[in-house]
Each structure stands twice: as structure tokens, then as C-alpha cells.
Amino acid sequence: MDEIIHFHTIREYNTFNNNETLHPLISIVDLEKASPRQLRRLRYDFYTVFFKQIKCGDLRYGLDYYDYEEGTLIFLAPGQVIGEYKEEFYSPQGTALVFHPDLLHGTVLAAHMKNYNFFAYAASEALHLSEQERKIILDCLDKISYELNHSIDKHSKQLITANIMLFLDYCQRFYDRQFITREKVNKGILERFETLLDSYFLSDKPQELGTPTVAYMAQELHLSANYFGDLIKKETGKSPQEYIHFKIIDTAKSMLFDSEKTVNEIAYALGFRYPQHFSRFFKKVTGKSPNEYRIADVN
To answer: How does DSSP assign 99-148, residue by residue?
Structure first.
């Protein structure tokens, strides 16, 4: 039976892993205390960060080996489901930082959580750490652990959430570094994105699906929408949506110059359901209506 084990509280997750609950809304879980168990699908109603101290040199990304080998971080937002159902048993390893959204109420961190896009990345888009980065991550976890083992006082919540924020800010920095160190792989994804856009407009997809969306492109490239968005932004300075809009305008200009199609026919060919939407969009970007652009180009 493909059941999902659902963890509603931090205490439930601690009990599942044979860990003591020091605080009802946050825990650093030593997964190696857990008993061997079968592979199952798991759902968490709280933020979860898995830190696996394993060698990642034999993990492959595309056709290249990845050389940051000192640990891997995987991020899950509340409500996400991971894992798969199998009959085999395994022994959990590593550490998990788990914290409930209720912990953040009234804190600075609450307003910053929306900036950490990596909580919506896929597991295959994990953060791989260098030796120095691993030490910084462990130091952040030690600071949080110290507060959890300290008797709760009026400073506890502010210090705990401040240290979580420090931890997440470092993760953001390390992801930015990872986008740079994976430049060759990222360039390949950008090239595939451009090819995918070209083939989209040469196919029947605009009539079937409308104008291309970021979600569609990310799915076709086997990436999460958030990771795809951050990657393209780092590589080009433009969001995927801006990049798509640029491609639509560029394609429209070519069709207006080379084609005998009417503006309405061009609008439908690009995936616009209503020609007037295309005309407004084109004028907003270029400063001219499609017909004005066509006339000016001819002259």
C-alpha cells in the first residue's frame, strides 16, 4: 500500500526518529538515532532542511560530476511530499532542521521566508557544499542547538529565529555560488531553453496551449519552476517571463516584416487568444502598434 506518513507536529517527527523534543516548534533531529524503516512517502507540515554529510563526487548532474563533496542540503516547504514506497528497509543518516511556521509569527524572519526560493526546489536541485561551507552550516546548527538546550527565556524566540535566518542567508549565498560554479551546465540549460522556445513557435503548441509559460518551460527542462527562474535570472539578468516576452516580440517582428499574414493571424500564431491582447502587449513593449511597426519597417 502506497501510504503517506503525515507529520503534523515537530513532536511527532521527533518521536518517529527517537529524538527528544526540546521545543514544540523547532528541532535539530539526529536521524541516526532513528530505527531502520521501510521506504515510504513522507509529508511535513513544517519547514524541513535535510543535511546529509555524504560524499557527492559520484553524483551526476547531466553528464558532469559535481565536485563539492562535503555535504548536501535539501529544502522542503510545509505540505511537500518526498520519498517513495518500497519494501526495502534503510537506516536514516544525517541531520534535519525542522521548524513550524507558527515559530515565525511576529519575527523578522516571517517577512523574509518568501525570499528563500530554494524551499520550492526539487530534491535533484539540492545544495552541495564545499568544506568551508560545511563548517559554516554546522556552526549555524550549533548556535540553534545551543538555544534549544538553553532554558527558554524572553530572548529565546528572537535568538532562535535570528540564527535560522543566518543559516538560510548563508544557504542563499551558497546557492548563488553554485549557480556560478555550475556555469557550464547552466549555459546548456539556457541553450536548451532558447531551442525550446524556437521549436514552440514552429509547432502547433501556441494554438493548443497559448503563449509559452514559465511552468511549461521548466517542466520540459525537468526543473522546478523556482530553480529554473533563479537560474535564468542569474545567467541573463532577466526573469524567464521577461525572456519569453522578449522572444514573443522578436518573433512577432520577424512575422510582421516577412509575412503577409494579418495582425490577427500573427496574434493567433503566437498563442494569443484575442488579437487585441497581442496589439496592446506589442505596443507596450515597442511603443508602436503592430500595424505602425509594419508600416515603419516597410518605409
So the answer is: E-GGGGTTSHHHHHGGG-GGGGS-GGG-EE--HHHHHHHHHHHHHHHHHH
Asked whether 67 and 116 are in contact (CB, 8 A), the reply is: no
CA torsion sign, 203 to 207 to 212 to 217?
negative
The domains spanning 4-181 and 184-298 adopt the same CATH topology: no
Would you kindly state where each structural domain of the chain is located, as residue ranges? 4-181, 184-298
Query: What burial class does residue 136 get, using C-beta atoms within 10 Å of its C-beta: 0-12 exposed, 13-18 middle, 19+ buried?
Result: middle
pLDDT tens digits for 102-160? 999 999 999 999 999 999 998 888 999 999 999 999 999 999 999 999 888 889 999 99
The correct CATH number of 184-298 out of 1.10.10.60, 3.40.50.10420, 1.10.357.10, 2.115.10.20 is 1.10.10.60
* Locus of grid cell 544525517: 94
Question: Which ranges constitute the DSSP H helices of 202-289?
Answer: 205-209, 214-220, 225-236, 240-258, 263-270, 275-286
**Which pTM was predicted?**
0.80
CATH node for 4-181: 2.60.120
Q: Which residue has the cell 511576529?
A: 106
Distances (CA, A) of 264 to 246, 276, 277: 19, 8, 10
In one letter, which amino acid is 284?
K
Q: Which residue is associated with the grid cell 529565546?
A: 156
